[in-house]
Amino acid sequence: MYTVIDDHSRVAYTEVHDDETAVTAVGFLHRAVDWFADRGVTIERVLSDNGGAYRSYLWRDNCEALSITSKFTRPYRPQTNGKVERFHRTMADGWAYARCYTSEQERRDALAGLLHQYNHHRPHTACDNQPPFSRLINVPGQYS
Helix axis angle, 82-91 relative to 104-120, nearest 10°? Predict the structure, then answer.
């Protein structure tokens, strides 16, 4: 899973991919930037683990082109990226292993619904028990 979580709101964007290459990571980054921009959030910094995809010149050059500062977690310290680690645990409990799926495609198809539930309806303690999306303001169409 590739995941971006907004530090302030805890709104999450995630995708499942079959590899961990720099090309896949950069494609995900561009889609995440666009997805957050559509919701009024500008990505300024990205904290990632020390995987090869994030240490690549391709990642560095794309972050620079997007005006994003790339930072890395401390090696062998997953708690440095605690928000993403906790989100992945929530996804494992509520989606990945919540029920028996008949195929991997069925599991992946179910992700969008759970992600919507997480962002728009599930109370989050860091957001005063409101859903993460409640912390975003002036999202296009929010008040129509």
Answer: 120
| pLDDT recorded at residue 134 | 84
**What is the rounded distance in angstroms from the CA atom of residue 23 to the CA atom of residue 28?**
9
- In angstroms and rounded to an integer, the radius of gyration of the C-alpha atoms of the chain is 16
Residue type, 135: R
Could you tell me if 73 and 81 are in contact, meaning their C-beta atoms sit under 8 angstroms apart?
yes
The conformation of residue 92, written as its DSSP 8-state character, comes to I
- Residue pair 2/15 in contact (Cβ under 8 Å)? The answer is yes
Decide: pTM greater than 0.90: no
Q: Output the average pLDDT for the chain.
A: 90
DSSP class of residue 93?
A: I
